[in-house]
Amino acid sequence: MVILKKILDFYINSSLHVALSAFALVSMTQYFFGVEGDFSVAFFAFFGTVVGYNFVKYDAIARLNKTEIKKELKAIVFLSFISLLACFYFFFQLSWESKLSAFTFFGLTLLYTLPFFPNKQNARNWKGVKIYIVGITWVGVTVILPLVEAEISYSMDMLLMAFQRFLLVFSIVLVFDIVDVKHDDIHLQTVPQKIGVKLTKKLGYLLLFLLLILEFFYTNNHHFLPFFFKLLVCGTIAVFLFFANENRSRYYASFWLESVPILWWLVLVVF
């Protein structure tokens, strides 16, 4: 059991799990817009997420050298380097339009991590901003990028998908913020810190309900599957919201919650 726990911890800490969620969301976007046989964006999103998230989590440790580098961190650095090479490989498979889009979202990641302005903190520590940067970045990588690569012209359906994805990611981050409400710096002003856990949960339910309502505004008539599929996803996240509290273990959000896109993507693939 100890070995299995170490493997699971490394899987989560190295951002492989969240990267698989990104791969799943890109694949679902491509499925709902009828894009077939193009895995370059999904793999770019996967390896880019590994690099980006590890950069965000471990950049301060690497730059300031505040702690002794442990074996696990060395392994994560090595994995990130391999992922960076793979990310470059799939990046060069993309069209020029997609490359420009990727640079834009990479810039958001840097803004989120590095203090660009003198005597200022990075965007991750700006009051109430973190959740919006995370949402916009995930929309860009998992919706805009695959559709740009597929040369699908901008339309109302694309905007709806982007807004739905933002609402989905926003709701997921709310669960993380509830679980971490005791540990987050009070200056971050996360949603639960500002309005309380009960109102945060109600906000999450409202956003998930709005996500489902938007499904009826697509100009291209969808068959029943997309709505049913999103209903299952929203229902699952609503359950996680309901049971979320500050005493949950780190696996509640970091593993089980982030498994939701992966689980429903696998259901989509199989059935």
Q: How would you describe this protein?
A:
- The chain contains twelve helices and no strands.
- The chain has helices at about 1-15, 15-30, 40-65, 70-90, 95-115, 130-150, 155-180, 190-195, 195-215, 225-245, 250-255, 260-270.
- Helix 2 runs antiparallel to helix 3, helix 2 crosses helix 12 and helix 7 runs antiparallel to helix 11 (about 250-255).
- About 30% of the residues are buried.
- Keywords: Membrane, Transmembrane, Transmembrane helix.
Secondary structure blueprint with pairings:
Layout: H1 2-13, H2 16-32, H3 40-64, H4 71-91, H5 96-113, H6 130-149, H7 156-179, H8 191-195, H9 197-214, H10 224-243, H11 250-257, H12 259-270
Helix pairs in contact: 2-3, 2-6, 2-12, 3-4, 3-5, 5-6, 6-7, 7-9, 7-10, 7-11, 9-10, 10-12
Which terms summarize this structure?
271 residues, mainly alpha, membrane
Give a summary of the structure in a few sentences.
The chain is mainly alpha-helical and 271 residues long. The protein contains twelve helices and no strands.
Please state roughly what percent of the residues sit in beta strands, choosing from under 5%, 5-15%, 15-25%, 25-35%, 35-45% or over 45%.
Answer: under 5%
| Number of H/I helices | 12
How far do the termini sit from each other? Answer: 33 Å
**Arithmetic mean of pLDDT:** 85
Helix/strand class: mainly alpha
Order of helices and strands: HHHHHHHHHHHH
Rounded to an integer, what's the Rg over CA atoms?
A: 18 Å
